[in-house]
Specification:
The protein is an alpha/beta fold. The protein contains 13 helices and 15 strands. The protein binds pyridoxal-5'-phosphate.
Amino acid sequence: MSLSLIARSIGASATLKLNETFSILKAKGEPVIHLGGGEPKSKAPIDAITAISSHLNSGEVRYAPVDGSIDMKKAIIRYTRENYNRKVEPEHVIASSGAKQALMVALQAILDPQDEVIFPTPYWVSYPEMVKLCGAIPIPVTPEDGTFTPRLKDIEQNYTSYTKAIIINSPNNPSGAVYPESFIRDIVKFAEEKSLYLIMDDIYHKLVFGNTDMPNPYDYVTDFSENSKLIIINGVSKAYAMTGFRIGWAVANKNLIEVMANIQGHQTSGTSILLQKAAIGAINGVQTSVESLRTTLENNRKVLVQQIKAFEGLHLIEPKGTFYAFVDFSSYDKDSTRLSNFLLEKVRVLTMPGVEFGMEGYLRLSYCGSIKDIIEGIERIKWALDPNSPNELYIGERKLVRDWN
Ligand SMILES: Cc1ncc(COP(=O)(O)O)c(C=O)c1O
């Protein structure tokens, strides 16, 4: 089979693949616990459901404008004003099939082959592959001080004449780190100074805990003209628990949005009008579900952090947002894929290998599921890894016997 060079360089999404494995095991009746999930378990807001149902009942489900319906754009404009204190016009926004497509189309609109795109490690699994899909080169940058918080000098050291863009994802998947105001200020200034595109993947920005502040990049922008290279990515997937609705968006300068719409027009056309109706319902409707999800996640985080702290040999930098914790398991196994496979095979707990996020020795554990699953999942992992554990463990009726050291 002859495949393109680019196609051959693209790996499957590890997270989606493991989700599939989970579904298969679950369907077979295996007592598997998903600590690798990437979506909240709550229901979509009632306003989303009402809005989509009434449009569906009309029986008229037609093509939508490529860059989003007028009402969708109005909802995004409102969201941007309320959350970023920034007034934008309809020509500054595009709705896409998830934040994923908004990101992909933005990258396709700005990258030429051999361009370089910098992003901090650990990173969301799709960034390197998306950059490669454009024929460009991903440049992951690991903070040198061993934290999950990048510093400007880490980025500066990797800047070359080929650098075209920087992607920043805070709160971060997989670490849950919220980058400090000083870094956001520095990176906005640096990108403006070097005339780089700055893509802020803000998909988790409403899911932050305690008194953590979410810095607003617009506070540091000096160029508000149509030459601005700031791109804000967002969507309803995480905060509104609407992952399956596939609505995300980008806010950027008018020229770029026009080019992104041209590209999207040949890929998928406008994202489904039904799903846009649901997203509009969620954004314009009552916001209590977001706060209730945030509180639930904050509580789940507390439980997970307690469990990890009581687990000798693990190291965790406490997440400040999202629903992920990136835990250092290297004292047990430095090969995260091997460890993740081992845990799935032996105790039926699904975790995401850190190497997929650019850091070996770590596992990403999600706390978007139930507290029962978090507690039992960690207990099973502990039983599997701690050589001092009793020889047997019961999962329901099933007896597991340690036949490894
Ligand atoms: C950092 C990050 N960006 C973007 C996305 C994609 O979001 P969506 O489901 O809206 O495409 C995800 C989903 O996991 C993510 O974690």
